[in-house]
Amino acid sequence: MRYHFCPKCGGTLSIEKTKDPNKPKCTQCSFTFYQNPAVGVAAIVIKDKKLLMGKRQGSYAGQWCIPCGYVEWDEDVYDAVVREFFEETGLKINISYVYTVLSNFHNPAQHTVGIWFMAEVASGTEEAGDDLEEVEYFSYADMPVLAFPTDRDVIEKLKTEGFIN
Ligand SMILES: [Zn+2]
Question: More exposed terminus of the chain, fewer Cβ within 10 Å: N or C?
Fold first, then answer.
């Protein structure tokens, strides 16, 4: 159990009734605290068979990822990926299709479901912003140190399917 107090009334959360660490219940107001993964979104932009990657600052500083972020509450998932990608890279994108969906367990404090979208650049020039300090296109052979194991899986899939080389 990762949370101890009820977000509604401040009462103590307990798994005594539910016996499920993912569904603690408030001992005061009976609110059930469902612990679900957050949704992460990333966009795959490829130019000349090279993949656009971002060098992170903050969490996982100095390591690289496919530009990504979280879907916010009340935000459409397609709007989220376009917003995050623009904030981090300065590029406006059009989403082509969902490339793959994977569960991320690398951070035990925050499991996520990651959605990687295939995208095309509509406008703008590459300029790192928000959580990124650098953006650059990389070929498969020159891929830098990656922050997330699932990005590695996605990159392998892109290589196998001939999108990057
Ligand atoms: Zn409560």
Answer: C
Residues 69 and 145 grouped into a single domain: yes
Q: Can you read off the two tokens belonging to residue 36?
A: 């679900």
Q: Per the structure block, which two tokens stand in for 116?
A: 């990687």
Ligand 1: centre distance to CA 8 (Å): 5
In the chain, the number of structural domains is 2
**Token pair 């005061």 is at which residue?**
28
Which amino acid would we find at residue 111? H
pLDDT, tens only, 52-78: 999 999 889 999 999 999 999 999 999
Q: For ligand 1, a single-atom ion, which residues have Cβ within 5 Å?
A: 6, 8-9, 11, 26, 28-29, 31
Q: Are 6 and 21 in contact (CB under 8 A)?
A: no
